[in-house]
Automatic annotation (TrEMBL):
The lineage of its organism: Bacteria, Pseudomonadati, Bacteroidota, Flavobacteriia, Flavobacteriales. One of its GO terms (biological process) is DNA damage response. Residues 1-18 form the signal peptide. InterPro entries: 26kDa_periplasmic_antigen (IPR052022), SIMPL/DUF541 (IPR007497). Pfam families: SIMPL. Transmembrane segments: none annotated. This is Secreted protein. Keywords: Signal. It comes from Flavobacterium weaverense.
C-alpha cells in the first residue's frame, strides 16, 4: 500500500511539474560577419628529397642539403622560433622490375615568413640551397585574433537585425539571447604564380612578380535563439 501511495505521489508531482512548464516564445536566426584583410605573413613548408640505392648515402646527401638550407635561412635573418624541422623520413622502395630496393629520404622544414617582401628572395634561395619540393604556402595575418573578434561581433549584429526584422510586423520585441552557436571557419588564400606574365615581359630586369596573395576572408557564422517579449 505504501509503495502504491509513493508511486501515485511521484506521478502527481511529475504531472504538476509538467503543467507548470511554460513555452517561452523565441526566434532562431543566423548571422554572418565578414572581414577582408590583406595577409602580412606566410607559413611555408618545403622539403629536401633524395633518392638512391644505398640508405646510408641517401641519408647523408639529404642531411648535407638540409644543412645548406638551414644556413641560408639563418642568413635571411629569420628568428630561430620562425623555422623548424617538421618531418624526417627514410623509406625503402622495392623495384619489382629490377628486383632491388631503392631508398627515399625526405626532410621538411616549416618557415614562418613575417615579411612578404622577402618571399621571392627566400624561395629562390631555398631552391638554390637544395629544396626540391614546395609542399604548402599558407597566407595569414598577424592580427587574426583581432579580426576574428570583429567578424564575430558583426555576425551577432546581423543576427539581431534579422530577428528584429521578422518580429517587427508582429508587435513584439527581441529580448535576451537564449543560446548562441558558433559555426565559424577561416579560409586562407593559396599562392598563385604569375608565370605567364613573366614569359610575356620583355624587360628581364624588371622586378619579379611571382605571387598574388589576394585577401583573407575572415568569416564568422552564428545561430542565435532570442526570447520574444
Amino acid at each position: 500500500m505504501k509503495k502504491a501511495l509513493l508511486i501515485l505521489s511521484v506521478l502527481f508531482i511529475t504531472m504538476s511539474y509538467g503543467q507548470e512548464v511554460k513555452q517561452v516564445p523565441q526566434i532562431n536566426v543566423s548571422g554572418e560577419g565578414k572581414v577582408k584583410v590583406a595577409p602580412d605573413e606566410a607559413t611555408i613548408a618545403v622539403t629536401v628529397e633524395t633518392k638512391g640505392t644505398d640508405a646510408k648515402n641517401v641519408k647523408k646527401q639529404n642531411d648535407e642539403k638540409i644543412e645548406a638550407v638551414i644556413k641560408f635561412i639563418k642568413k635571411m635573418n629569420l628568428a630561430p622560433s620562425d623555422f623548424k624541422t617538421q618531418r624526417v623520413s627514410l623509406n625503402p622502395q622495392y623495384d619489382y622490375e629490377k628486383k632491388k630496393h631503392n631508398y627515399n629520404a625526405t626532410q621538411t622544414i616549416e618557415i614562418l615568413l613575417k615579411d612578404l617582401s622577402k618571399y621571392d628572395e627566400l624561395m629562390g634561395g631555398l631552391v638554390d640551397a637544395g629544396i626540391n619540393r614546395i609542399d604548402n604556402v599558407t597566407f595569414q595575418s598577424s592580427k587574426m585574433v583581432q579580426y576574428e573578434s570583429e567578424a564575430r561581433k558583426l555576425a551577432m549584429k546581423e543576427a539581431k537585425v534579422k530577428a528584429e526584422d521578422y518580429v517587427s510586423v508582429l508587435g513584439q520585441k527581441v529580448g535576451r539571447a537564449m543560446t548562441i552557436s558558433d559555426n565559424s571557419q577561416t579560409n586562407y588564400p593559396q599562392p598563385r604564380y604569375a608565370s605567364m606574365k613573366l614569359m610575356e615581359s620583355s624587360d628581364m630586369s624588371a622586378p619579379r612578380e611571382t605571387l598574388a596573395v589576394g585577401e583573407i576572408n575572415i568569416t564568422a557564422n552564428v545561430t542565435v535563439s532570442f526570447i520574444l517579449e
